[in-house]
Amino acid sequence: MLGLLRRITQEVTAAQSLPAALDIIVRRVRRAMRAEVCSIYLVDTNSKDYVLMATRGLNADVAGSVSLKSDEGLVSLVGRRAEPVNLEDAHIHPSFHYLNGTGEERYRSFLGVPIIHHRQVLGVLVVQHEDKRRFDEGEEAFLITLSAQLAGVIAHAEATGAIANLNPNAIPNGSDFRYKGVPGSSGVAIGRGVVVFPPADLDVIPDRRTTDFDEEIHDFYQALDAVRQDIRLASNRISQHLSADEKALFDVYLKILDDNSIAGEIVRKIKEGNWAQGALRQVIQAHIAQFNRMDDPYLRERASDLRDLGRRILSHLQENAPNIAERFSEPSIIIGEELTASMLGEIPIDKIKGLVSVMGSGNSHVAILARAMGIPTVMGALDLPYAQLDKVDLIVDGYLGKIFTHPSEALTDSYQQIVDEERQLEEEYETLKDLPCETLDGQRLSLFVNTGLSADVARSLDRGAEGIGLYRTEVPFMVRDRFPTEAEQVVIYRQQLEGFAPAPVTVRTLDIGGDKALSYFPINEANPFLGWRGIRVTLDHLEIFMAQIRAMIKASADLHNLKIMLPMISNVAEVEEALALIRRGYAEVKEEGYNVQMPRVGVMIEIPAAVYQVKELSELVDFLSVGSNDLTQYLLAVDRNNPRVADLYNSFHPSVLRALLSIVDQVRGEGVGLSVCGEMAGDPMGAILLMAMGYDVLSMSSTSLPKVKAVIRNISMKQAQNMLNEVMKLSHAEAVTQTMTRLMREANIERLIRPSKTTNVD
């Protein structure tokens, strides 16, 4: 049964259209369950009716034209209950309703299961028999499992507009297709999409229109010849070590490459208007799907051979393709299945209008980087047909996490007004650059910045930053193919320390692991966020830790503005060990003749265990800095990079707010510095609450700083504390944000955060 499910799922996923996918389902399920009828009903998003979309066994001629009301019939009963209905004689059930023209009057037994995606019922999958008998538990379980697989296909089709309206008499919209993601970085971008993808990954190659057929066909045949040559060379190189049977594998590869049918199919796809890489992907994937459907294990294994050859051809095609930077003649919206920092690094910043990533969440590192650069971003757009969006007009709404494709003139005009308002707000922020961040009643709040790139220094100073609250040292480690030397690190850290001197610069020791990987130091774990990361890695590798500590201290010579911060602290022993090593490193640097002072040392509070040991930790160090991103993630048991649970990740969850307040209460009167350096600090709503709790330093991206300053300068500490008192009584995160939005509107400060029209455009 498992093999059958896998094959049906593969066929459905490979289907070229929604009708084709639905037909595969009803045909294969009817045969697998030996049912006389299998049908699929989908919910019309406008009328909420259940429309018969595909059937085997009933009258197929009425598919798409007959439907049941949302409160009519057994199908709607399945939908309302959101659970299976299994009847041996459907006709006697009070909810039974005969659907004219279908020919279902002779069928007695009925099993219907809901098709659910993200808690929304999209339709119902039904099987029926003429005789009166109840479907057994195994059959019911099979259908439930299959409907769960089908849900993703239906949701994707709905998102792409394929089933935007199932009413055959409705006028098609044709534009303003909307996709939902997760807000990554606020702002609005209007422009044309450019799809980017990692090299030699066949599955993520987008479709791209071309008119230069001859050049694309020439490039394809050139790549084909190059792969043939590679395989012959490989075969000759190791032939003496292989048996005749093993050498035959290379002959199989060459036969596939010489198969004119596959090459011919790819050329036909190119002549139909797709570029060579897209045509290659289409044909190879179609053949892989055919192999995967075969019952013979040997033939199924040939799918992996074909995939390998497809990647080899793609690799040669990409070698001759233009550099990614050369593709940008104008500022564009960058789209990818999983955008990475290295991808962004290949694109000129002035050519990036907006970012859209299918994978990831609002607290992925790409989103954090986008906020630092002020680029409107949407993450976690799981249903986005990204491969079809190259050179397509788009609107990215980073406030609400929405993407619109083929936007109408009216929608574009509405969003252009938001862009104009954003520009006006930026001009208003500019006037605050040299003013202190203090409340109306004189309460002073220090605003620092989080940095990771050398370019951040000038940008941060230009926005009025008072220091660096978090310098992420892993960034210069991630852009290299080896560990940077101690001397190289000295130069890197000196740029940050010198740029802000005499203001303090907090440098975090290497924080790799989790979702931050080094290609030359791989950490493969089943649960990386609970594994070997942060201080755990560096204390296990003293050569890395000591080189970094010495480099930091040397970089601070004559400046004396260095603060060292230790990440992922979970117990007192880790701090004691790290402090001893830092003192040793300081002594070694002093012996070398550098004019340095012992830096102040602090720890990050980002693990629940540390929250409960704040008092003990504060007795060992000079300052504490709350990393609200990881603290929220660990308190709520939510992977912040997983878009499927992105809605559960919320820094305004009452448990998070109580933990933050508890930290302040525990160290009050201890004389230890206390700051927040997570993304919550850069959210004006979060900044108000953190200030009211008693945090006196907030560190954020440079683009967030002007907004936070504008809000703090237009509110009193008393107002902020009243807001805090009101939300601390609430038990839902959504209630906290709604209440804060209302209170900020009443205080006339919501207008300072985002353009007024952002809540009206949809």
TrEMBL record:
<dbReference type="InterPro" id="IPR008279">
    <property type="entry name" value="PEP-util_enz_mobile_dom"/>
</dbReference>
<keyword id="KW-0418">Kinase</keyword>
<keyword id="KW-0460">Magnesium</keyword>
<dbReference type="InterPro" id="IPR008731">
    <property type="entry name" value="PTS_EIN"/>
</dbReference>
<dbReference type="InterPro" id="IPR050499">
    <property type="entry name" value="PEP-utilizing_PTS_enzyme"/>
</dbReference>
<dbReference type="InterPro" id="IPR040442">
    <property type="entry name" value="Pyrv_kinase-like_dom_sf"/>
</dbReference>
<dbReference type="GO" id="GO:0008965">
    <property type="term" value="F:phosphoenolpyruvate-protein phosphotransferase activity"/>
</dbReference>
<dbReference type="InterPro" id="IPR015813">
    <property type="entry name" value="Pyrv/PenolPyrv_kinase-like_dom"/>
</dbReference>
<dbReference type="Pfam" id="PF05524">
    <property type="entry name" value="PEP-utilisers_N"/>
</dbReference>
<dbReference type="InterPro" id="IPR036637">
    <property type="entry name" value="Phosphohistidine_dom_sf"/>
</dbReference>
<dbReference type="GO" id="GO:0016301">
    <property type="term" value="F:kinase activity"/>
</dbReference>
<keyword id="KW-0813">Transport</keyword>
<dbReference type="GO" id="GO:0005737">
    <property type="term" value="C:cytoplasm"/>
</dbReference>
<keyword id="KW-0670">Pyruvate</keyword>
<keyword id="KW-0598">Phosphotransferase system</keyword>
<dbReference type="Pfam" id="PF01590">
    <property type="entry name" value="GAF"/>
</dbReference>
<dbReference type="InterPro" id="IPR023151">
    <property type="entry name" value="PEP_util_CS"/>
</dbReference>
<keyword id="KW-0479">Metal-binding</keyword>
<comment type="similarity">
    <text>Belongs to the PEP-utilizing enzyme family.</text>
</comment>
<dbReference type="InterPro" id="IPR029016">
    <property type="entry name" value="GAF-like_dom_sf"/>
</dbReference>
<dbReference type="Pfam" id="PF00391">
    <property type="entry name" value="PEP-utilizers"/>
</dbReference>
<feature type="coiled-coil region">
    <location>
        <begin position="408"/>
        <end position="435"/>
    </location>
</feature>
<protein>
    <recommendedName>
        <fullName>phosphoenolpyruvate--protein phosphotransferase</fullName>
        <ecNumber>2.7.3.9</ecNumber>
    </recommendedName>
</protein>
<keyword id="KW-0175">Coiled coil</keyword>
<dbReference type="GO" id="GO:0046872">
    <property type="term" value="F:metal ion binding"/>
</dbReference>
<dbReference type="InterPro" id="IPR006318">
    <property type="entry name" value="PTS_EI-like"/>
</dbReference>
<dbReference type="GO" id="GO:0009401">
    <property type="term" value="P:phosphoenolpyruvate-dependent sugar phosphotransferase system"/>
</dbReference>
<dbReference type="InterPro" id="IPR003018">
    <property type="entry name" value="GAF"/>
</dbReference>
<feature type="domain" description="GAF">
    <location>
        <begin position="17"/>
        <end position="164"/>
    </location>
</feature>
<dbReference type="Pfam" id="PF02896">
    <property type="entry name" value="PEP-utilizers_C"/>
</dbReference>
<keyword id="KW-0808">Transferase</keyword>
<dbReference type="InterPro" id="IPR036618">
    <property type="entry name" value="PtsI_HPr-bd_sf"/>
</dbReference>
<keyword id="KW-0762">Sugar transport</keyword>
<keyword id="KW-0963">Cytoplasm</keyword>
<dbReference type="InterPro" id="IPR000121">
    <property type="entry name" value="PEP_util_C"/>
</dbReference>
